[in-house]
Every structure is written in C-alpha cells, then in structure tokens.
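Handout, page 2. Input:
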Amino acid sequence: MAGILRSIVQTPPGKLHVFQPSPEDHEKYGGDPQHPHKLHIVTRIKSIKRRPYWEKDVIKMLGLEKAHTPQVHKNIPSVNAKLKVVKHLIRIRPLRLPQGLPKEEDMAHTCLKSTGELVLQWRLSPMDQEAIKS
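Output:
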C-alpha cells in the first residue's frame, strides 16, 4: 500500500514542480497578474498560542501581535516569503485606492475599511458670509 502511494506522489527524476497560478485563481481572488497590487493589508485572525516559535517570530516581525488589527505591508518577495510561513494564521487583502493615492497632508483624514479600501474623508471648509449673500 505504501509503495503504491509513494509511486503516485513521487515525481520523475529531474522534473521540478513549480507553482503556476491558473487564470481561475485570479478570477476567484480578484487579482490581475499583469498589474499586481502594491500593498497588502494583513490581519491576524487566529491565535498564536501553541504555535512553533518560528511562526511567533514571524508574527512579531510583521507587527501582528494583536489579533484583528490590520497592518499594511509592501507586496515584495521578502515580505511575501514571511507571509507564506504564517498564511494559515492571517488574512491578506490588497489595498485598494478608489480615490487615488492621498497626499501627505491628507493622510490624517483617511479611513481604512474592512474591505481593503483606503478612503479619503473630505474636509469641508466654511464659506464666507459675503459669498453666500451674493
């Protein structure tokens, strides 16, 4: 029985298995392989109690000690490698900017929604009384 399973699982010598995402994956998760998103919103959704020390270290490196608190990380290979180690403990969503990238002075007036959208809250300034009368 074990020999049958081993022959099914083993690959031919010299053949390397490389992960190739399918187009269905991109449709399912809303990704575009030609234009990937630049930032991830990462949220820890499971406990790190009774987890190995290396997973706890990665969670601490990513700043996810507190559960259900989103953190923004770059979509670069070094960060993605860390995220892959703890992918079963976290939720990863792309950061979407429906109103474009905010300016530095507008960063204090932004709101990060749970859907992954960074929304700019417009501040209204009062009008002059003279402009209202005319």
